[in-house]
Design brief:
The complex is a heterodimer of chains A (262) and B (365).
Chain A lengths: L8 H10 L7 E4 L3 H11 L6 E3 L31 H9 L5 E5 L2 E2 L5 E2 L2 E2 L8 E2 L6 H7 L3 E4 L25 H4 L7 E5 L3 E5 L6 E6 L5 H6 L20 H11 L12
Parallel strand pairs in A: 1-2, 1-3, 3-8, 8-9
Antiparallel strand pairs in A: 4-5, 6-7, 9-10, 10-11
Helix pairs in contact in A: 1-2, 2-7, 3-4
Chain B lengths: L7 H7 L13 H10 L11 H8 L5 E3 L10 H9 L5 E4 L6 H6 L3 E6 L11 H8 L4 E5 L2 H13 L3 E4 L15 E4 L8 E6 L5 E9 L5 E2 L7 H7 L2 E9 L2 H6 L4 E3 L6 E4 L17 H9 L5 H13 L4 H8 L1 H15 L26
Parallel strand pairs in B: 1-2, 2-3, 3-4, 8-10, 10-12
Antiparallel strand pairs in B: 5-7, 6-7, 8-9, 9-11
Helix pairs in contact in B: 7-8, 12-13
Classes of the chains: A alpha/beta (262), B alpha/beta (365).
């Protein structure tokens, strides 16, 4: 039998992200890799999670990969579909355990930019999508996990626009701004998993993907990363059975996890 | 009209010289007056799409992007605004994705922005270009949820709601409306945002079924449309089908929009094409991909694309013919009903040939 190709970087991110989910949790899911990770978790270690989408979908039965967060697969035979204002309200009222969100830029305090590249709002280098639900979920949800590719321009010292407040200026500043919840608890990238040091709330390496070193992760980051005490653990790698599920059942058309040439 | 207080910092950051342009969105008095003076009688409000857009959409109105970007969104009504040459509208919605191409035709000139783009199909290069060229002016920035709260406040009949969204973010520095305050219920420090009730001038809502009076039924995500119907000064319903009033009375669990709000009822099968209409038709995925990956590359491309699809189509039937006609109708219905698990999914394959510049299959499923 032909040996299974090792996980590509996007598949690794999806797998590592899926490990952030525990069974029976309510998971608020953004588009792309968050959807892949949540569906993978449901097909592996967390079969009883409840998935929530901002277009109103809630607890759909399993199906194909949604094309968008408004896709019928996000509300497939849902018992109810919430209006948008009510859907986000669940996060504020404490009914959502964890939310997964993407970013165009993230800084050392987990503040997220999805608005623009370039600091001038009226004349940005590139205008991006704007907030969508990113600010709402980051403001309201108890635990946030951010996901994206690791590169210096995506991890700048200062984001060009604070779309969503993570830990703001560190310390207690998120709470002082009036925001509930723990804020971002992890950032999952192709370098590994980062968390936030409990007192300063600065981004810290938690684990590194196989072959990745702290120095290499630092080179890919536009600010100084904190180093954990002791040896840095290696991020787990999916075993062949999980990779098989990811490739054949979760994202069979490779919409979100295929990389041309790999 | 009320006298309003706007964030000075946001006015400066957005370079809004005359804040009078901001007032109608939060002016409950004029919205209430519009609601009081419109015809409350339960009478037959059916008319053509052309007449509804001509009569109820005025240049400069605050219009909405309804549905969810390309789910149950009244694209065909937007297309009619383009064909009639409507000018200088403000667009508001969460999401507000469809404002983008309307800018190229002058329909949209101002934006109350929450999100514009197509998720994994990338950020919208056209919107970025129109913004840099000054063809659209942003009047306020929002998140989806905070804007949804503004619409919901209007539906609640409340001047606004206190919220925990937007706190600490740069969005506040570009939103003249939202205030940060101390929660009046608390003694200990507790910052909150005050989100005012939002009153658009006109909303078009595409629904599955309506009766001739305007009672309207939605299947699938309602998103913000129930609130929008209550808030907007003028409401146009476009419907896949017009049913007898008795159908509404017997199947009353899905009636979400009451006829008193509604000014016009338009029988408009395929009114959400090329978007997804739950139970009726799936997205034309390649259409959107071609639009985003090729159309948005330049003003010339988008013109060529939309001139063919929109300006050279007189109605949704023309559009559906170009998509593939009866075969498209059948396959597209099969696809959405399979996604919703109302058709058998065993053996069904959702794979499709994604659009790539230079290899246009001409198929739009």
């Amino acid at each position: 039998m032909e040996a299974l190709k090792p996980a590509n970087p996007l598949e690794m991110i999806a797998y590592v992200l899926s490990l952030q989910i525990r069974d029976h949790q309510v998971v608020y899911v953004g588009t792309g890799l968050p959807m892949v990770a949540a569906i993978l978790a449901r097909k592996t270690h967390a079969p009883h999670i409840t998935m929530v989408y901002e277009s109103g979908g809630q607890d759909p039965i399993p199906g194909d990969m949604p094309w968008s967060v408004g896709d019928p697969f996000t509300w497939r035979k849902s018992a109810l579909i919430q209006e948008m204002a009510y859907s986000f309200a669940q996060a504020y009222n404490g009914y959502v355990d964890i939310a997964f969100l993407g970013f165009a830029q993230v800084d050392m305090y987990g503040n997220v930019n999805t608005h623009q590249i370039g600091a001038d709002f009226l004349h940005p280098k590139v205008r991006l999508t704007g907030s969508g639900g990113n600010n709402d979920l980051t403001s309201l949800t108890e635990n946030i996990v951010l996901v994206g590719l690791h590169a210096p321009d995506k991890f700048p010292l200062r984001v060009d626009f604070i779309t969503s407040v993570g830990h703001l200026n560190g310390g207690d500043s998120r709470k002082e701004a009036g925001l509930p919840g723990n804020g971002p608890v992890a950032v999952v990238t192709n370098a590994g998993v980062l968390d936030f040091e409990p007192v300063t709330k600065r981004m810290r390496v938690q684990s590194l993907q196989p072959g990745m070193t702290f120095d290499l992760a630092q080179i890919c980051t536009g600010f100084e990363l904190l180093r954990p005490d002791g040896d840095i653990p290696v991020t787990p790698v999916p075993d062949p059975a999980i990779l098989e599920i990811l490739r054949t059942q979760v994202d069979p058309h490779g919409v979100f996890t295929k990389i041309p040439g790999l | 009209m009320g006298i309003f207080s706007y964030s000075r910092e946001a006015l400066e950051n957005l370079r809004i010289a005359d804040p009078a342009i901001l007032a109608p969105l939060v002016d409950v008095e004029s919205a209430r007056k519009a609601h009081l003076t419109k015809d409350h009688a339960k009478r037959d409000k059916r008319m053509s799409l052309r007449d509804a857009i001509a009569e109820f959409v005025q240049d400069g109105d605050i219009a909405t992007d309804s549905g969810f970007a390309y789910v149950r969104t009244p694209h065909q009504a937007y297309f009619e605004m383009m064909r009639q040459g409507k000018k200088g509208l403000h667009f508001i919605g969460s999401p507000n994705t469809n404002q983008s191409y309307l800018i190229n035709y002058g329909v949209c000139a101002y934006s109350h922005n929450s999100y514009v783009g197509a998720e994994m199909r990338g950020s919208d290069r056209n919107y970025s270009r129109q913004l840099l060229n000054g063809r659209v002016t942003i009047l306020s920035e929002w998140s989806h949820g905070s804007m949804a709260q503004g619409f919901k406040a209007a539906q609640l009949g409340a001047p606004g709601v206190f919220s925990k969204q937007l706190l600490g973010s740069d969005i506040l520095r570009f939103n003249p409306y939202v205030k940060v305050m101390q929660n009046p219920m608390r003694v200990d420090p507790d910052p909150v945002t005050f989100i005012p009730a939002l009153y658009p001038d006109v909303t078009v809502i595409h629904v599955h079924a309506a009766d001739k009076y305007g009672n309207a039924r939605i299947y699938g995500p309602a998103v913000n449309d129930v609130a929008l119907a209550a808030a907007a000064r003028k409401v146009i319903i476009t419907a896949e089908e017009i049913v007898p009033e008795m159908d509404m009375r017997y199947n009353n669990q899905g009636v979400v929009i009451p006829f008193v709000c509604v000014d016009a009822v338009v029988e408009l099968p395929y009114g959400a094409v090329p978007g997804n209409m739950p139970g009726c038709y799936y997205w034309s995925r390649q259409w959107w991909e071609k639009f985003l990956r090729w159309g948005t590359l330049s003003d010339e491309n988008i013109r060529e694309f939309l001139d063919y699809w929109v300006m050279d189509s007189k109605d949704p039937f023309d559009f559906v013919e170009k998509l593939g006609g009866a075969k498209w109708v059948a396959l597209s219905r099969r696809m959405t009903k399979t996604a919703e698990y109302d058709n058998e999914d065993d053996g069904y394959n959702f794979a499709y040939q994604s659009y790539k510049p230079g290899s246009d299959s001409g198929i739009y499923y």
